[in-house]
Amino acid sequence: MNRQDLKTIIYAEKKKEETNKYKHKICVCCGAGCISSGSEEVMKKLQEEIKTRGLENEVEVIPTGCMGPCNQGPLMKFLPEYNIYQKVDCSNISAIVQSQLIEKKPIEDLLLFADSREKPFIDARDDPYFKKQLKIALKNCGHINPERIEDYLVHNGYLALDKVLFEMSPEEVIAEVKQSRIRGRGGAGYPAGLKWETVYKYVNDQKYVICNGDEGDPGAFMDRSVLEGNPHRVLEGMAIAGYAIGANKGYAYIRGEYPLAIKRFELAIKQAKKLGLLGNNILGTTFSFDVEVRIGAGAFVCGEETALIASIEGKRGTPRPRPPFPAESGLWGKPTLINNVETFAAISPIINNGGEWYSEIGTPKSAGTKVFALAGKINYAGLIEVPMGTTLREIVFDIGGGIQNGEDFKAAQTGGPSGGCIPAEHLDVKMDYESLVSLGSIMGSGGLIIMDKSSDMVDVARFFMEFCMDESCGKCVPCRVGTRMMHDLLQKICENKATQIDLDRLEELAVYVKETSLCGLGGSAPNPLLSTLRHFRQEYENRIVQHD
Amino acid sequence: MKSETAVPVKDMPKTDPRMKLIAAKLKKESFKPDALIEILHTAQNAYGYLPKEVLSYITKALHLPPSRVYSTVTFYHFFSLKSKGEHTCLVCTGTACYVKGAQAILNEIERGLGLKAGQVTADNKLGVQVARCIGACGLAPAVVLDDEVQAKVTPEEIVQKINAKIGTL
Amino acid sequence: MNTIPIIIDEKKLEVDPGKTILEVCRENEIEILTMCHLKGVLDIGACRLCLVEIEGINKLLSACTTKVAANMIIRTNTDRIKKYQRITTELFFAERNHVCAVCVANGKCELQDLGYKVGLDHIRYPHLFPQCEVDTSHPWYVMDHNRCIMCTRCVRVCNEVEGAHNWDVMNRGHQVRVISDFNSPWGESVTCTSCGKCLHACPTGAIWPKAIVQGQLQKNPGMINELVEKRKMKL
């Protein structure tokens, strides 16, 4: 397919959309969360219902990716009215269809958040849950069928790839990404544009692009939802990166725990190849780019880039010291660009709307939006995307609907086992890279676990230390033995058997492991401990037994 | 990812279809040593674990040193060297599930079956595993029973469901 | 060849670019403690004893894997580094079951030497006392996992120099163990050539020849690099 063909297809698809014979569109959330709540049966039942009523020429039913409020699922959205129904049960589908499509009025009691708000919002877009959000990476999630490339094309899919191939030089693409000031969404927040430029500058006949989808933080499911809800967006981002840095091969490393994401991403590759948007001579140009999926086999440390590379090479996922960085010597010793799923998902809007547009969203040092996975003792758990700099209070109370059972907020855990806990007195912290670091936590990949008073912070620290101890690759001494020693000491404190000396040793070890470990896993393993010590020291001291 | 009932390889006829599955995958990957993990995935999915005979076969086919294969297998959670039982029960202990009481669920199962996570009942009926996070945090606490996600479960519910599967607990 | 200026512990040096900090220090008699480094095999930066401070770099870097660059200002003996070396040494001793008095390597052990160098008089952490095997199945050699510190010098020498790849590492975290083939007894190995290089590469009393009494062990780790060099020359 050449450029003209793509335009023709998009034009034809858009025309089809405009002159849509359907008056209504019903989106059924088929994200992993809603599927587990039974959305596939809901979808089947809904299709039967539409058919029985002879409405199949008026109503289109499509499965979509994640809509957001996962614990209210299965979710069903009526367009163009934007009425979202929650906890849809096969038994009330008939009533919903009758009311919505025949009587033309929604059943308010079944709408989203009807059971927790005084009055639900008829048009879901008015609900503060959505109003406070800004969806860029997740833009099409929940609107399009992730298993149809045409759905993506209608929403200007692959136009950014078309634009870079025909109108921009690799340098210009990199300049655009630099101007957007987007920082790596995998956790560390390294400026993506700089990374691209570094890889671009290494001269080599073979370079690689790797998409890091090894989302191993417990409590995080951002990458999963992006891959399941809009796989083509990620694929397009990877291809643009390949063009910019001069790579013709990409790997998407996806967690084995995410079979649906793997399935949809593989399908997306197949569809894109068929249309000539991937593979040899993309859109008739000299640029060729191929992507292969690599399935993770269950090792948290493989989120670390050098470990991930080792794993793609079929080895134990043990990290190696940097420098040399993968940008210089990565996969099979070749210059390699590694970015996170969410980073790649933001690339095509940056190209389409310009780097400047993106850089104006968020805060001066942290541009753009961030996807968070809200979970824990919060009313509306699920997936949200907000501009950087949104306060924790807004996320927890305006979007998340506050703490379950009206309890008090105690702490929010960000960054998973590499992050820390933010106490109630810092509820007004702006969620951006620097502010979180100044509180002893990190942005991480975006897991946000909300805790109430039932959470014991010493036990939380022990939980994460146990995680790091189990996930340590065992290569370097501080991480291998240090995490075990810290875990044992924390266990002792939890059992009310530790003394002040134990606590002092624990703190000394924490700083030691942080500073001496070989890779980021060990280097950040003490963070949950250090941050709970900083903000909740009293809970530790209450458990110390006084004897000599 | 469905796994069939695991049976030791030596009891299988020589024309075991699962062995053919692995052979096909090896061929697809052109016997490249760096495809080791991909091939192990295929074998693990086919058998539910990695029998020693299968490992030897893969080792020879890829011309890898045995210790290199064994070191890779034991590094990753997904691969197991022991059969996980006819039915599997995977308790998610990710942060969200942990906050919502996954430990109580696990305790109840372990107490009821008299085993620890990672073990299989004496009659090989049920294997209990823990996952670090299955990514279904909105549905916490979650348990996967034979590839089926059980959302927001209570210890009592899950015990009941296990009972229905294996008849004792 | 052009040299570059660097400063190590206030000492101004002109050194060849392309060398690691460790190589430069050894050439200039600046002591750097190491355990996993073995001349002749690839460095992995695992023991973290050779960490140095470099001005302008936030993190401590391992001297064995970091190359010198022009105008680097390196410190190898600050209080912080000394403190961390001591903790690392303590963790080595606490991890498995090291009893010098009954060990074949007593007096010839690099771990024991390390203990003396950092002034280890007691260990502040509880010993983990793992249950480790002693593999005596090989006709000539013994592998005692109680004394193994996971430096993986044996693994690398077997793979890179001998080319047999009998050894590798299984599991992860504190459960890691050096294994032979499919974690089978060493004596049943189908890959081991019984060349004995691992024995010389091992810094402790973990691998030793049978028919040796306590304290009588002779090891020659320098032989590994000589061998590598000779092989390159193809005399």
Quick synopsis:
The complex is a heterotrimer of chains A (548), B (169) and C (235). Chain A has 548 residues and is α/β, with parallel strands linked by helices. Helices cover 43% and strands 13% of the residues of chain A.
CATH architecture of the largest domain in chain B: 3-Layer(aba) Sandwich
Straight-line N-to-C gap of chain A:
79 Å
Low-confidence stretches of chain B: 1-13
Predict the CATH topology of the largest domain in chain A.
Rossmann fold
Instruction: Give average pLDDT of chain A, whole number.
Output: 93
Please tally the β strands of chain B and state the result.
4
**Which percent range fits the helix content of chain B?**
40-55%
CATH hierarchy class name of the largest domain in chain B: Alpha Beta
* Biggest β-sheet: strands ordered side by side in the sheet of chain A: 10-9-13-11-12
Largest interface: A-B, 53 and 38 residues
Number of distinct helices of chain A: 23
The H/E string of chain B reads: HHHHEHHEEEH
* Helicity level of chain A: 40-55%
Strand order in space, largest sheet of chain B? 2-1-3-4
